[in-house]
Amino acid sequence: MQQQSRSEGEFSAYRFQTIEQTLQTFQWFASMRSNQPVVYDPQSRLWQVFRYEDVNQVVTDYSHFSSESIPGFSENSFLNGTVVATDPPDHRKLRNLVNQAFTPRAVNHLSGRVTEIAQELINVALPTGRMDVVADIAFPFPARVIAQLLGVPDEDWDVFRRWVSEEENTGQPVTLGTVIQSRQSMEAHRYAFFSRLLKERRTASRDDLISSLSVAEIDGERLSERELISFCILLLAAGQETTKNLIANALYLFTEYPAVAEQLRQEPELMPNAIEEILRFLPPVWFTMRRTTSEVELSGQKIPANAIVLAWNASANRDPAQFPDPDHFNIQREPNRHLTFGHGIHFCIGAPLARLEARIVLPMLLAQLKNIKRVPDVPINVRTGIVYVIQSLPITFN
Q1: Most buried of the four, 44, 255, 280, 335, by CB within 10 Å?
Q2: pLDDT per position as a tens digit, 348-373
């Protein structure tokens, strides 16, 4: 595979491949972990990191690996100034806001409505005996849940569909310039949308997250309108995209391993562990970007200050030093300290909601859809970048 030489634009923009081509990347990861676990690519000007121990240090040690001033990540994007793109002490104030949104009470309070939304979507497909997992379940399900959490009217969830369909384009390769222009347009629409909702809630509060945010105080001070709206946009992106990819990846693996799907039907109590193994084995998030604050050393390799580091979470998840028999899909794997959601202070803000949604919808799908099979002779195309996105997954069932 010619994975080693990628331009900086290719890491920032999207790439479209068949799933078979993409899964070959795991072979490259294994080679790099053994031969070049920390390597500088002069073409992309990125330091790439592959082993679990090193990736864990990059995503956890914020004193040496900063989330700020990273081109295409914490610069020139809506992420600038958000919780995922700031370091302490600013990070603490914003993380406290996240904690307000994702308290156990706030997340569990959604369980009933999450179940209703899942059943409504399943009911549409049940009589037909077929569905596109992505279009019919994986995309609309988390979009509607996020709408419920934020207090966006259900009828407005199609706004989210338009934003995502614009971002995913037509499935053809795109340039970094095209991506930036498209994102800037979407971000302007998103900002205006949430600005309107925030203004409405300040005059007529409701029992939703936007109303709570409108009066939130962190460390004795109110957050600015920009901080609040950026958080809403981040929550939309993190909560929707992560769950969408997790559900699609799960159904792909269930069709690849039908015995596992049947085991989960018979032993639904294994589902929480199965979700963690899905996240490890075929993660929705593949890498993390950081900037070194000083010279650091990883696996005997010195990385200079102000270098941009790309840490491959997906490679760390297959490191045999951490996971025995890492290429085996084992839903009873214990322990399973995968790095799909990161670690430390920047642990993924959408993780609690993604896990809740998966624990609800996946058992429902397995219980109600029997003999699930992929439609034959239909290639599965994947969009890769920081996230791993199955574009379409048509299935049949009884």
Answers
A1: 280
A2: 887 888 999 999 999 999 999 999 99
